[in-house]
Amino acid sequence: MRSPERNIGPVREAAGWTPSSWQQRPQQQQPTYADAAELGRALAQLHELPPLVTSWEILALKRLVAEAAEGRRFVLQGGDCAESFDDCSSPLISNRLKVMLQMSLVLVHGLKLPVVRIGRFAGQYAKPRSADTETRDGVTLPCYRGDLVNSPAFEADARRADPQRLLRGHAHSAMTMNFVRALIDGGFADLHHPEYWDLGWVEHSPLQSEYRQMVESIGNSLRFMETLAGEAIGSYQRVDFYTSHEALILHYEQALTRQVPRHWGWFNLSTHFPWIGMRTAQLDGAHVEYFRGIRNPIAVKIGPSVTPDQLMRLVDTLDPDNEPGRLTLIHRMGAAKIESALPPLLAAVKASGRRPLWICDPMHGNTETVGGGIKTRRFENIRSELDHAFDVHATVGTRLGGVHLELTGENVTECMGGARDLTEADLALAYKSQVDPRLNYEQSLELAMLIVRKRGGIAA
Questions:
Q1: What is the pTM of this model?
Q2: Max alpha carbon distance in the chain (Å)?
Q3: The pairing of beta strand 133-136 with beta strand 139-142
């Protein structure tokens, strides 16, 4: 049954908030810059650069998030764990876009719902770390915090927090967004030709037959509708695509936080959809303070250690007016903990009358280290957590409205299992990530098909 649409109207501006008020709060995961004057010059230059997204795009996404929370859309959020400046190239960007489009095609076909596509790119250049320093062979240096901060090379100069990288991050994000927009506007996502999205793997994948049948079915349906209409349906020639990243380095985010004509309040114009990671979600911390004042749709990662009381205080701070589309809660519990840790949180939010969008991140709670210190994830655990997420939401009476994945369009071997049953020995074949292991193109599409099967859209 279709839920009534909720009006998205103005809400109160955050009291006592400014784009810099976070600087008076305890700060986590921020780099230490040795030269304050150098940082100041870089930030001043960054503040004058054009924004990466627009306020009307941000408000449009907020409406889509609100519809997803009502069960009228499904959110697919995915991309690299951490982007690299070196990977800002047309083949890598287009392949990442292809796999997202292929996954969304599977979800649209199977769930019979519009899909909101949100890429973890054009800004995902910083990563939280468990320690500030790293020691090798008796030498201790600052840890690698992503290309927005420093370089992965284990050298003193490379590991220095360099303010110029903030400007390079903006430039690489702008180039990425420009290329994605050009592809989308040029018909790259045209549903009349989903075969354009094929990657080389399709011919050799165990999933190729099922995917080909799906493409043919969609093509036949589209041609049938156009026959009835007597003309081509132009809206199927392009799709909306939004960007997201963990808004970790707050100096960078502040410099791109702007007021705009004809809209009240402040917008983070570095991305459409910023989120707070689990390590920086302290109620009295700098990140929560920054996020409570921007008008973007925002998200928070929540893990198994979060209590219902902590979660509700966080919800009250970030979304005091229960604004439709404002808040997304991304749970990442791990396959072993989701059945015990998630229900109390869902029940508390439901009892409060709040209606955020719930998304499952089945990746981060299932990371493990195998021989040689290699980080990986098992596909069976990723699948298990996602399966349990749907079941737990159904039991509590809430709705799972999306999925958050670390993935790539490349033929990497970073996560074990999947259709090709990758083993620990296979990880060395093509392990490219500098930070967290990602699903490859084949595992990503397989997971989309599993989501649909779970929802009863495709017979197993």
A1: 0.91
A2: 73
A3: antiparallel
Give per-residue burial for 362-374: e unless 16+ CB within 10 Å, then b. bbbbbbeeeeeee
Cα–Cα distance for residue pair 253/21, rounded to 1 Å: 13
How many angstroms separate the CA atoms of 197 and 126, rounded? 29
Q: Any idea which of 164-178, 194-208, 315-329, 441-455 has the lowest mean pLDDT?
A: 194-208
> How far is residue 334's CA from residue 391's CA, in Å, rounded to a whole number?
15
- Short-list 176, 197, 198, CA closest to 86: 176
- How far apart CA 273 and CA 271 sit, in angstroms, is 6
User: Alpha-carbon distance 400 to 392, whole Å?
Assistant: 9
Tokens representing residue 375 in the block = 């980080």
- What is the DSSP pairing of strand 298-302 with strand 273-276? parallel
Q: Which amino acid is at 243?
A: T
Residue 376: exposure state from Cβ atoms within 10 A (0-12, 13-18, ≥19): buried
Give dist(CA 28, CA 282) in Å, integer: 9
Among residues 289, 411, 202, which one has the least CA distance to residue 25?
A: 289
Region of 71 (left: φ > 0; alpha: ψ -120 to 50; beta: rest) is left
Q: Determine whether 219 is exposed, middle or buried from the number of CB atoms within 10 Å of its CB (0-12, 13-18, 19+).
A: middle
- CA dist 28 and 46 (Å) reads 22
| Token duo for residue 71 | 């069960």
Q: What is the DSSP letter of 373?
A: G
How would residue 223 be classed by pLDDT, with cut points 50, 70 and 90?
Answer: low
